[in-house]
Structures are given as C-alpha cells and as structure tokens.
Amino acid sequence: MYNIKVFVVDDHAIVREGIKAMFKNAPDMELVGEAENGDETIEKLKYMSPDVILLDIVMPGINGIQLTKLIKQAYPHIQIILLSMEITGQLIGNGIGAGASGYLPKDSSKEILFEAIKKVKSGDKFFAESISEVVFDEFFKNSVRGDRRGGVGFATKISDREMEVLKLIASGKSNREVADELFISIRTVDAHRNHIMKKIDARNTADLVKYAIKNKLIELFD
C-alpha cells in the first residue's frame, strides 16, 4: 500500500515528538524524517524526497515563510503545510504567497492533520476552519473599504449569501456539506460558486485567497 511520506520541521523537540507519536500506526502515511531548523531541512532534502512537509513558521535563522519559498523553488512537487500558534491575516497571506498548500494551528487534532496531509498531497489546498474565518473576515472587512483603498469594491460584487458560500468552500467543505449547512440545494451551491468565480475571475479555491492577497485585502510582508 502506498504511504504518503511526511517530513516535520520544528525547532522544539517536544513538538516533533508529539507529531511523531501521532504517526504511530497512521493509515496510508508515514513520517520519514525531521529537522529542527531551515539549514538542516535544506541539507536533508538533498537525499530525501517527502511528499508533504509540516513546517513551523517561527524558527530561529531561516523562518518558515522563507523556507517555504526556498523549498518550492527547488522542489515544486513537495507540498507544504504551515503550522503556527499565531493566526493572523498577515502570516496566512505570507504563507500562501510563499507557496504553502495548507495552514494549521498547532493545536489541531490528529484527524484534522491527517485530513490536511491527504488533501494537499492530492493537489488541493487545506486551511483549518479557524484559518478561513480569519482570512475571509478580513476579506469582507476590507471589501467594504475597497473604493477608499483603491481596491475593487467587493462588497458591491459579492452578495451576503455568496460570501457565506465562499467562506464555507474555502474552509474545505464539499458542495454537499455547504448545502446542508445553509439549507439549500447542491444546485444552488453550484450556482453561487459559479457566480463568485466569474465575478472575481477565479478558477479554484486557492485562487479566491490569492485574489484577496493580490488586491491587498490581505497584506503581504517580506
């Protein structure tokens, strides 16, 4: 049976040990390596080829955002999930801009972690619900100020219902789950999704977040 190969990077040994414990008897995946900093990670990736890297953001030396950029430039096939105790629009935006495929709080459950790993390995994006709430709350607040900031003015383009659908889709929910939560039909969800995509010229869920960053709805910092 094929296993997803996972590598973990965190400067705290206790965090790495906790993550390793989660992978004991994990179905369809295995932890193949670990590192405590960016330099060690870069060196080990010369002879290892993980599918997914779980990467701490706040580390001495090369931080997680900088390391994400370096890894994606050298190994674009490796998917990266950022882990952090801090959840802000700036950090989330930086992570997405650097090429991360997911972002999880460090207190996420094993079930959420494994779901995220499987999703990013399949080419999807995964953001914990709390992450999506931060991103799209900021998205909505700034959209109201869009005209004053020279932005696009999303509040006049996306309806309240479409915003609800948008936030749920971005949190990783399927069309069926969105329909059940909002008490609407799957066909209606499809219609809302298509309208949103056309309005902001997006192709997929990742484009929704990237578009918010591009239009300065989420600030990026080097």
Automatic annotation (TrEMBL):
DNA-binding recorded as keyword: yes
All residue ranges annotated as the HTH luxR-type domain in the record: 150-216
PROSITE patterns per record: HTH_LUXR_1 (PS00622), HTH_LUXR_2 (PS50043), RESPONSE_REGULATORY (PS50110)
Residues recorded with modification 4-aspartylphosphate: D56
Domain Response regulatory: 5-121
Keyword terms, alphabetized: DNA-binding, Phosphoprotein, Transcription, Transcription regulation
One Pfam family of this chain: Response_reg
Keyword set includes Transcription regulation: yes
Name of this protein: Response regulator transcription factor
Species of the source: Splendidivirga corallicola
